[in-house]
């Protein structure tokens, strides 16, 4: 056989060998991915439910087909690379697994969802190698938009929207007064509610901005500027939308303004801002339509292949161990008992008597699936002022049984009660002001007792829950809420403070309710 013929055979054999190698590694990746999804199917199903049922995350339903499209864009260049097993990729899997453990222990869905996604990313890096992962760097990064996030920014965005509205109302010479997220004008009383925060629009624009930045730009400076516009323009536009509703109401009627806002925002507003952002960026697009998204030859030239490959079975076994250890550990600790009393009752408080609950506007905090929940009204025998006391006791916390979380506690979603502002609170507590139609104002002071700590911080509650569920120990948790309502322009905090003074140490009451004293 001549030298030319040998070279030709080698050249023809290389693509065949590469296809076979890709097939082998993709099969390993499919097995690992399916195993991860099977083990953590509850978290995966929870993510899908959020995508489908919560409008803030509806855009996530488009992320999967977009990811497929992004990989297809790179397929021809990726074929020039050689997949390989890369042991350091197990480190990413380990970090993800540990993150899931923290989320499971603390009852933080975001951490569990993020951990699941990163375990899948770790499988890609481990089973396809670092060079292929570099070729897939944007699809891997873009996949983070599959994780439902952003609700924690709603109060901040409510305040931003309210303050922007006040600026625009001032420019329009419309008299207005702001009280938290409530704005009064000569026409009426407006609330910048959670739905008006613009969070769903902002998150969708972040995903869209990232996609356009990758597909349409090559310059990192231009990408950063476009992403900045994708954040700032929606926030400003949302402030203008809220102002527009008040402006229209000022010149027409409240009903007309509400109807116009619903139709305009629901059908035209998002499209208009989307077009505006694209119009801003269009003149600066610097990627040609036929430019490859990655340079396979350049990546291949930098690829260092090991002389001997790692054993696939050993790597898959190591990955399985890294993933399963946290699951087994948390399951074992979950079997530990943390009993609470069979019955509890509201305490007697010197100088106060129990009376019937007759609110100015119905309200009661929510603590789903608590072991015990009590609620009662007290009246001061000398001053006649009234306060409400709520106590919730959990023997343990788990999925759907968190003492702190969305829809838990003082602010109940899908009611006419709205958060208005944070208030100064006693030590070991958090205080908020709620407002209902009337308006009726209710100040609520919330204490949480867990792990021997009295706190008003949801983060501390999550941390103590996590510690007890990782290292073992007492898992009982108690919430004590003291509140008072008024329809007058006076603070109800004096009544709350007087009741707390007569109630005595809150931590002792909480321990008694949990059966720890």
From TrEMBL:
Tree of life domain: Bacteria
Subcellular location: Cell membrane
A UniProt-annotated Pfam family: DUF3485
TM segment ranges: 26-42, 54-71, 83-103, 123-147, 159-178, 198-217, 224-244, 264-285, 315-335
Keywords: Cell membrane, Hydrolase, Membrane, Protease, Transmembrane, Transmembrane helix
Presence of keyword Translocase: no
Record EC number: 3.4.22.-
Gene Ontology MF terms in the entry: hydrolase activity
Keyword Transcription regulation: no
Enzyme class label: hydrolase
Domain Methanolan biosynthesis EpsI per the UniProt entry, residue ranges: 319-505
Membrane-protein topology: Multi-pass membrane protein
Name of this protein: Exosortase A
Biological source species: Parasphingorhabdus flavimaris
Gene that this sequence comes from: xrtA
């Amino acid at each position: 056989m001549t030298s030319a013929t040998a070279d030709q055979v080698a050249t023809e054999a290389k693509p065949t060998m590469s296809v076979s190698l890709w097939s082998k590694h993709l099969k390993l990746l499919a097995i690992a991915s399916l195993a991860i999804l099977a083990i953590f199917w509850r978290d995966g199903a929870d993510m899908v439910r959020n995508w489908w049922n919560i409008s803030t995350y509806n855009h996530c339903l488009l992320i999967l087909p977009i990811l497929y499209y992004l990989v297809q864009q790179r397929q021809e260049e990726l074929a020039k690379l050689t997949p390989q097993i890369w042991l350091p990729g197990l480190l990413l899997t380990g970090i993800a697994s540990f993150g899931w453990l923290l989320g499971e222990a603390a009852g933080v869905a975001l951490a569990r969802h993020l951990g699941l996604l990163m375990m899948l990313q770790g499988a890609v890096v481990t089973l396809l190698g670092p060079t292929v992962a570099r070729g897939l760097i944007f699809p891997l990064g873009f996949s983070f938009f599959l994780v439902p996030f952003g609700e924690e920014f709603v109060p901040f965005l409510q305040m931003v929207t309210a303050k922007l509205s006040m600026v625009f109302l001032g420019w329009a010479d419309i008299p207005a007064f702001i009280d938290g997220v409530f704005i009064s004008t000569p026409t009426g009383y407006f609330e910048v509610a959670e739905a008006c925060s613009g969070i769903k629009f902002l998150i969708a624009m972040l995903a869209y901005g990232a996609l356009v930045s990758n597909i349409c730009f090559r310059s990192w400076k231009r990408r950063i500027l476009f992403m900045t516009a994708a954040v700032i323009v929606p926030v400003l536009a949302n402030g203008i939308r809220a102002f527009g509703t008040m402006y229209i109401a000022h010149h027409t009627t409240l009903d007309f303004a509400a109807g116009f806002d619903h139709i305009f925002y629901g059908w035209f507003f998002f499209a208009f801002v989307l077009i505006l952002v694209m119009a801003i960026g269009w003149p600066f697009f610097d990627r040609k339509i036929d430019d490859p998204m990655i340079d396979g030859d350049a990546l291949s030239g930098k690829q260092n292949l090991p002389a001997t490959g790692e054993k696939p079975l050993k790597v898959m076994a190591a990955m399985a161990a890294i993933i399963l250890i946290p699951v087994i550990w948390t399951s074992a600790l979950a079997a530990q008992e943390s009993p609470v009393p069979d019955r509890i009752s509201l305490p007697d408080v010197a100088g106060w008597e129990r009376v019937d609950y007759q609110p100015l506007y119905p309200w009661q905090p929510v603590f789903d699936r608590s072991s015990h929940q009590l609620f009662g009204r007290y009246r001061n025998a000398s001053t006649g002022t009234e306060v409400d006391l709520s106590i919730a006791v959990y023997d343990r916390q788990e999925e759907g049984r968190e003492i702190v979380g969305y829809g838990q506690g003082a602010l109940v979603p899908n009611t006419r009660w709205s958060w208005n502002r944070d208030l100064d609170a006693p030590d070991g507590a958090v205080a908020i002001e709620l407002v209902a139609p009337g308006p009726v104002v209710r100040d609520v002071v919330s204490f949480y007792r867990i792990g021997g700590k009295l706190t008003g911080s949801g983060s501390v509650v999550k941390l103590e829950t996590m510690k007890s569920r990782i290292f073992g120990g007492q898992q009982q948790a108690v919430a004590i809420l003291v509140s008072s309502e008024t329809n007058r322009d006076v603070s109800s905090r004096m009544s709350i403070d007087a009741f707390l003074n007569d109630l005595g140490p809150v931590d002792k009451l909480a321990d008694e309710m949990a059966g720890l004293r």
